[in-house]
Task: inverse folding
């Protein structure tokens, strides 16, 4: 525990980690979002009844669907990049190129899905 | 560009043996989840999803191959989707995903909790949370 981690929020926001930092923070948001969603979803299917139906209505809201699809897709694609680079450490030198490639895969897929979700909701 | 930290063994980076194993597990379970999801999607296509399901329902089945995720589709007969085979596949996906996810929560918590006592507490809480999630999930998969 040699690192000093208890810096202020302002210092944290001022940290210029650029692309890799952005994927790190989005990976974290996506993971947390999915963990909370899956936990609540399991709970809802377990208890069922009015509470389950209420929670299901929340998931079926198009805003929630866009959010959770962002979480799942980004976490999956970014996680695949992390896995590949970590299992073949020589590739870490090309991390920034890998991140560009990752966005090139993520953005079209997410745009199509978001468009379909919004069109279905309207 | 420095490459020093990559040349250190996992224990020299301050990770215990278990944490180092979990670091590897996180990567391998990610690949396992890719495999399980693809397996479920291919299985659904074999069972006729191409004409009886829309893409969103197919993905819902892919992320958790449980028959409650098929009920609202145009599949005429739910029986082939509710076999012990698919319940086992769903259980495997549940176990891998919950272990991966709960360990991720512990890693996030470690960034904000630095005392040994706090970290030990977060670990015990995570184990309890994991067991509750697995218990409820397995119950839903095998009774639905």
Result:
């Amino acid at each position: 525990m040699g690192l000093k981690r208890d810096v202020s929020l302002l210092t944290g926001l001022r940290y210029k980690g650029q692309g890799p930092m952005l994927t790190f923070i989005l990976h974290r948001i996506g993971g947390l979002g999915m963990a909370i969603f899956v936990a609540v979803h399991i709970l809802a299917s377990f208890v069922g009844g009015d509470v389950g139906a209420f929670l299901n209505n929340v998931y079926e809201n198009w805003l929630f669907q866009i959010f959770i699809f962002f979480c799942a897709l980004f976490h999956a694609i970014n996680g695949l990049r992390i896995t590949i680079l970590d299992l073949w450490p020589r590739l870490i030198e090309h991390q920034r190129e890998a991140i560009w490639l990752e966005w090139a895969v993520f953005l079209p897929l997410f745009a199509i899905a978001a468009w379909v979700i919004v069109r279905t909701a309207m | 560009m420095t490459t020093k930290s990559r040349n250190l063994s996992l224990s020299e980076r301050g990770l215990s043996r278990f944490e180092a194993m979990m670091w590897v597990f996180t990567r391998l379970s990610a690949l396992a989840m890719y495999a399980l999801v693809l397996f479920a999607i291919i299985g659904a296509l074999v069972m006729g999803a191409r004409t009886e399901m829309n893409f969103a329902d197919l993905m819902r089945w892919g992320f958790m191959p449980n028959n409650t995720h098929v009920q609202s589709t145009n599949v005429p007969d739910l029986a082939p989707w509710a076999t012990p085979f698919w319940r086992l596949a769903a259980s495997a996906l549940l176990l891998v995903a919950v272990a991966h996810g709960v360990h991720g929560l512990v890693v996030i918590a470690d960034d904000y909790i630095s005392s040994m006592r706090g970290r030990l507490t977060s670990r015990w809480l995570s184990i309890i949370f994991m067991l509750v999630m697995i218990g409820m999930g397995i119950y839903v998969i095998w009774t639905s």
Notes: Chain A has one domain: 19-121.
